[in-house]
Amino acid sequence: MKKRMYPAKVKVRDVHYDITLTECVDPTDSGDTITRGYCETKEKLIVLDSTLSEQELFETFLHELLHAAAHEHAIKLKHKTIYALEGPLAQIIRDNFIFVPKR
User: Fold this and answer.
1) pLDDT for 45-83, tens place per residue?
2) Which fold has domain 9-96?
């Protein structure tokens, strides 16, 4: 199955975050930490692991968007709250919305 296409940038409030898909995501560049994705709010960057399944990639994308939104809107969210929201939010979007990519 072909993976969902992701935008090169996403607007969060009035700030644009670059979206990057890459294998074996390591936010520290140390080679010691591998994660599904991360959000760098200072650099306005979201990085996702391209080797994930379509479902995992979509949920990770939403997870990192929640980090960006919390930062840009000055909302204090615990990491466990973001984890708790990613799955239900993905289900709501999957079951109720059709996304048409821009050309």
Assistant:
1) 999 998 888 888 999 999 999 999 999 999 999 999 999
2) Zincin-like (3.30.2010)
List the one residue out of 25, 28, 7 whose CA is nearest residue 16.
Answer: 7
How far is C-alpha 22 from the chain's CA centre?
A: 13
Domain boundaries, the chain: 9-96
CA dihedral of residues 101, 14, 79, 82 (deg, nearest 10): -40
Using DSSP's 3-state secondary structure scheme, residue 83 falls into helix
DSSP-derived pairing of the beta strands 9-12 and 37-40: unpaired
H or E segment to which residue 55 belongs: helix 54-72
Six token digits for residue 90: 């993905």
